[in-house]
Each structure stands twice: as C-alpha cells, then as structure tokens.
Amino acid sequence: MSQTRTTLITGGNSGIGEALAKKLVGEGQRVVSVGLETPAWTHDLLTAYRADLTSPSETRAIAEEICRDHAVDCLVHNAGMILPNLLGDAKPEDILTLAQLHLGAPMLLTQAAMEGMRSRKFGRIVFVSSRAAMGAATRSAYSATKAGVHGMARTWALELAPSGITVNVVAPGPILTDNFWGIVPKGSEQQDKMARNVPVGRLGTREDVAHAISFFLDERSDFVTGQVLYVCGGTSLAGLSP
User: Fold this and answer.
1) Of 31, 77, 81, 142, which is the active-site residue?
2) Which Pfam families match (predicted)?
C-alpha cells in the first residue's frame, strides 16, 4: 500500500494475524487488532481492542466503536477456531459457534466499516479461510463454515465492486501456529510426517500467509476480487495425510 491506510485485523494478537500486523506496522501502516486478547507488543501505529467475536452483540458493539474511532480502509478477518471432532462426536452447536465466528463476525464488522470505505471509494476485505474448506477429517463444523466463507466473499465481491471495494480469500494449508500445535504436538513425528507429505516439502509459516494477504491489500490489486488463493504448499492439489 503506497499511502498510509488503517487495517482492522481480527485475531491480530497471535499467529497469522500477529505476523500480518507486524508486517504492516513495519511498512508504516496503521493497524487495529481485535480479539480475545490484546497483542503482547506495542507500537504507536497499533491500537488493540478485546472482544469475543463468537457473541453477535459483543461483535456489533465493538465494530461500531472501532469504526467510530478509526477510518477502517482494510479488514482482514483472521480470527478462527477449529473445534475438531469425528462425525460421531460432532455437535450442531459447534456449527452455530463457528458460523458466528467465521461468517457472522466479519459481516457485522464489514457492515460497520462499509460506509467509510464507500465514501473513500477504497476498501479491501480479506478472509483467512483454510484448505480444509475442501474437506478434512474431523472438521465437520470447521470445513462447512470455511467453505461458507468462500461463497460469502464472492457475493460481497459482486455487491461491493462498484464502490472500489475488493473482497478476496486466502486459504492456508498446514501452518505452524498455536492452532496447529493444539492438534499436532509440536516437534512430533506426526508434524514431521505432515511436512514430508506437503508437495513443497515443508509446513507453512505465518509469514507465508501474511505475504499473500498483503498482496490483496495492495492498492494495485484493485482488478482482483472474488478470488480464493490457496497458500498451502500444494496440498489443495495433492491432499494431506495426517
């Protein structure tokens, strides 16, 4: 981004969100983080809010507060949960929880930011989805809601294109974050086996995904909208064995 913009990042306190926040701040961009926790680091260009995005009322309130106090040019919805279970143990309540987090929360945040984006004739909305949207064992609720992200993003891309607002999706494969290590033990044989099964021969990093997101945020990417970019080392083509 050539001029100073303000990017709202959900889950900007850790993982991919934190990596993106640090990248943008390092480039002189303003960042607003919102999530269950505030970042463990500070910077003059970083503002942080705490909210539970699985709560519609709490999300609506924080969205209004943030967009009242900041001219949000870009929104990156990165916050997410997995809630893994095989089908026999899966719960419909998990679908409702993840639908609010992965779909309802960005809807409320975008609705709050949309008027300002339209008035400036510029906006960038980027969802962080997952390769699991294509299907993955133990991911009933997660895969369903992440696949829903793709459909919603394409719909918004059509609706918002005349206003100079693009909407795109970055879908990571296996990335070394706390979410990943919450399921695959850190440094385990399982982790090593997964790395060997990735076509490019390694697991992804937070920075890999932040780099892809920054492409969609760039002012020069205004002819790209409604797209899903898999940042997955080739696993969207070949699959991934646990």
Assistant:
1) 142
2) adh_short_C2 (PF13561)
